[in-house]
Specification:
The structure holds two protein chains of two kinds. Chain A is mostly helical. Chain A is built from six helices and four strands; from the N terminus they run αββαααααββ. In chain A, helix 2 crosses helix 6 and helix 5 crosses helix 6 (about 135-145). Chain B starts with 16 loop residues before the first strand and ends with a strand. By secondary structure, chain B is mostly beta strands. The chains are: A mainly alpha, B mainly beta.
């Protein structure tokens, strides 16, 4: 034993030196050990409807039914034919997207038909959002897509047919900062 | 302590211009204090008041449970612009030209609501994390308040801020009523990485869809990488619990990214392999280009600045030395430099930046200016530490056209007439 190990402290230091060096070189884990207070849940509400149709509920609706619902719930702000009023225009685009003052309607601008269901179900009508049945939302989607010239007047929309609708401006977007 | 040698400052009339239009060295105010030639007039006015001041001779008001601004400041208020058929759909602007420093008082933070402000009982509110996770979890408010927190001073700017800048003619409204959909606060909350880690993120998840508990359950998709990097669940705003209009009891904080992503009244986070393509990330908050294609998922708010004094609607009383001041911010990082021009952009001088220079936060800038009473055009130009420079309006319009509506960050110009009146110009 040499002079370097005179005290217990020195002996401990020397013996643990390799471990100390390794600890310094290892990545630091600064995160405080947090509380884990989340409660497991299973049957919670899910409102998101994705472009592939995931999230769409059972049910169906047609153009005629949607025309009636639109007149009752939507026309006061969006106009009888969705041409706009105190709220924005939804249909009847005349000026193309590359014009200086373009018309951005559902038919001319919206890239996915599923967005209509997602938005109407959660947000419309504005005086009572979230109160329309799945059938009513499908019907409103049908009327809005028909008045935009995207689907025929005899179309019936459901969880299979709605996501399959090719929207005219599907490829009109440049994903700037998306992964 | 060493006493610093202070050089004597020459009289104001001898201060040399450092750029056109009378801009002076930014350090002069620091060295000399504010030497205004016109200050003699203010002293005279005060000396004339010989009526007794009642607050010196009668007891003041008692204590108050929650303090309010002086009634003499009642016009320092948000300006509201709402849908005439749906009162809760619209915006209110922060009166930036009435404020100093960098922190926006909570009662003046800008608002954007899609269908009103919900009055949420925190005892009934849950945040649910679900979708592509190992175990879906619900968190109540009391539990979330027990998690480790952090604080960060951050601006939040609406993607539609300054959209009148796309108009062919400059809109004539006060600075805050055009550009005041931006505010800055100290936010305190729980890092989202902690909550997502608890639920266990699936390997194929790459987006998080955030949803509010307002009337309309507004939803937005945010890349998972950003959420894990620096986003937090905001619970406190400038030290107190969030105001209802800013998301009580909890909101998303997404540093440097557009305001609509800072989902208020947050009730659900769904992890997903794909974005939901909600109405607000397709039909809205996307920017049409002259080609007819639209920019989508434009998250970062770009480098920008604004002179708040002098600005539209203010009047300079006469030729004198004035302090030009304003705000600069960038979603990319810290503000590195703000230049000011008093001759419409022909020449520029560096403004003094008030520290600390925080990333993705307001930075206050100031520079002295000797106005000689002739017409002048004032501009500010910010540069951030990533090298982004605020563009001239003509450059931005040439690149984006005028139908994009969102993400307007061009240089803002004020014209000063010979009578001292300040208005907006291009």
């Amino acid at each position: 034993m040499t002079d370097w190990f005179r005290t217990r402290t020195e002996r401990v230091l020397l013996l643990t030196l390799p471990a100390l060096l390794a600890a310094c070189a290892a990545p630091v884990a600064p995160r405080t050990e947090s509380a884990r207070l989340g409660q497991p849940v299973a049957n919670h509400e899910r409102l998101n409807v994705f472009p592939d149709g995931r999230g769409l509920p059972p049910g169906h609706g047609n153009v005629a039914g949607g025309r009636e619902l639109f007149a009752r719930h939507c026309a006061a702000c969006h106009g009888d034919a969705g041409q706009g009023g105190t709220a924005e225009e939804l249909a009847g685009a005349k000026r193309p997207l590359n014009a200086s003052s373009p018309d951005k309607t559902i038919g001319s601008y919206w890239p996915y038909a599923t967005t209509l269901f997602d938005f109407i179900r959660r947000a419309k009508p504005m005086n009572a959002p979230g109160t329309l049945s799945a059938d009513e939302v499908y019907a409103l989607c049908a009327w809005l897509l028909h008045v935009n010239g995207v689907i025929d007047g005899d179309a019936v929309l459901d969880a299979q047919t709605l996501p399959a609708i090719p929207m005219p401006n599907r490829d009109g977007f440049l994903r700037i900062e998306a992964p | 302590m060493t006493r610093r040698f202070i050089r004597p400052v020459p009289p104001a009339e001898e201060w040399p211009d450092i750029a056109g239009g009378g801009l002076l060295d930014r350090r002069l105010f620091l060295r000399s204090g504010l030497l205004l030639a016109g200050s003699a007039g203010i002293r005279n006015a005060l000396a004339q008041g010989d009526a007794p001041l009642p607050w010196l001779h009668t007891p003041g008001a008692p204590f108050s449970a929650y303090g309010q601004p002086s009634p003499y400041e009642r016009y320092t208020a948000r300006r509201i612009g709402a849908n005439r058929a749906v009162a809760g759909n619209g915006v209110s602007f922060t009166p930036l030209e009435e404020l100093a420093g960098t922190i926006t008082p909570n009662g003046l933070h800008f608002e954007r609501h899609h269908n009103g402000v919900p009055q949420i009982d925190p005892a009934l509110h849950r945040l649910t994390v679900h979708g592509r996770v190992r175990q879906a979890l619900a968190f109540d408010v009391k539990s979330l308040l027990r998690y480790p927190m952090r604080s960060q001073t951050l601006f939040i700017e609406c993607g539609g801020n300054s959209n009148a800048g796309w108009h062919s003619e400059p809109v004539q409204r006060p600075a805050g009523s055009v550009h005041g959909l931006v505010s800055c606060a100290e936010w305190t909350g729980v890092p989202l990485s902690v909550l997502l880690d608890e639920a266990g993120v699936d390997a194929d998840a790459s987006w998080v869809i955030a949803e509010g508990a307002d009337a309309g359950a507004m939803n937005m998709s945010i890349p998972l990488a950003k959420i894990l990097d620096d986003c937090m669940l905001g619970l406190y705003q400038n030290g107190e619990r969030l105001r209802p209009e800013n998301g009580y009891p909890m909101r998303l904080i997404v540093p440097g990214w557009e305001g609509v992503l800072h989902v208020k009244w947050l009730q659900r986070l769904e992890l997903s392999a794909q974005p939901v393509m909600s109405r607000n990330e397709t039909a809205k908050y996307t920017e049409l280009l002259p080609s007819g294609k639209a920019r989508q998922f434009t998250f970062t708010m770009d480098c920008k600045s604004l002179i708040t004094t002098p600005s539209h609607g203010q009047t300079l009383p006469g030729p004198d030395i004035y302090q030009i001041t304003g705000l600069a911010w960038s979603g990319h990082g810290r503000i590195a430099r703000v230049e000011v021009s008093a001759d419409g952009g022909n020449s520029w001088a560096d403004a003094a930046l008030q520290g600390p220079l925080l990333p993705r936060s307001f930075t206050r800038f100031r520079i002295p200016w000797r106005w000689d009473g002739t017409p002048a055009v004032l501009k500010s130009r910010a540069t951030d530490d990533a090298g982004n420079v605020q563009p001239e309006r003509a450059t931005l319009v040439a690149e984006r056209g005028r139908a994009g509506y969102f993400h307007y960050n061009a240089i803002i110009a004020w014209t000063v007439e010979d009578d001292g009146l300040v208005s907006h110009t291009y």
